[in-house]
Lipid II flippase Amj
Amino acid sequence: MTRLLIVALLTAIIHMINTLIYSVRLAGVRTQRLATALSLFQVIFLIASTANLIQAPLMSSIVEHAINAGLKHAGGGNLLADPYYQAQLSRLNMEIRLVILAATGGTIMGGLLIPTFVSVFTRGIMLLEDLGSVPRMIYKMIVSPRQLLAMARKVKLPGAGHFRDALRGPLKIPRYFLLANILITGIWTTGVLSALYAGALIPQFRSTATLTSGIVNGVAAVLAATVVDPTAAMITDQAMRGVRPEADVKQMAVYLALTRLAGTLLAQVLFIPGALLIRFVAELIT
């Protein structure tokens, strides 16, 4: 249970940071320093990358424990027909769904923190410009915590008014762009988890099933690189040139967070079909 809670917490952190990236473009437009904003966010994104490095093997170990417990109980018999192993699969199903739920929770927290993060990040961009490098900025915050305290004062959950303006007006961004974000998030959220569960469905080929997740995530990566990222970049550049108002970038950030939330909910629906598809592909190539 402790291992599962750690995985859920790390998953929430990963999805919270991946949601906060939507606010970086708004901070870049507001300060007219988009390249600096994107570069500075990479420092924060290292936290998500580190969390992912820890989360993945922990989640894999949960699946391995379930498989090994079933193998021990079956004693060389038909593992998949063993009622004990079926109970292990049901438990594993619930545990993975809890991890996906943690992704939803992290996305909600990230969405709520977008207005606050824009303010904090804007101050961070200006501080980086004054000091010239990230190491010097971190050192400055350590030896002179006034800057850090000034940023901390801006950390508070926003009211509904911060989102109402973005949602009240007419939609100024392409609908296909938002629908694609839902699908991409759904695939990306459940890709590895479906592959791990598929490995439990075919334990004799579980390594093949797990590695097949790269194909699933590759589809999401192609869609993101060809549909979502270029459109978001175009809207941001238009706002920096004055062709669009800054409000359009704010609306984009809010709607991307909402569609990302919908994508994590879609992942609950895609989880089992994805696992069955991966099992089919793994059996086909072995």
User: Anything to note?
Assistant: Residues 34-74 form the longest helix (41 residues). The chain is about 85% helix and 0% strand.
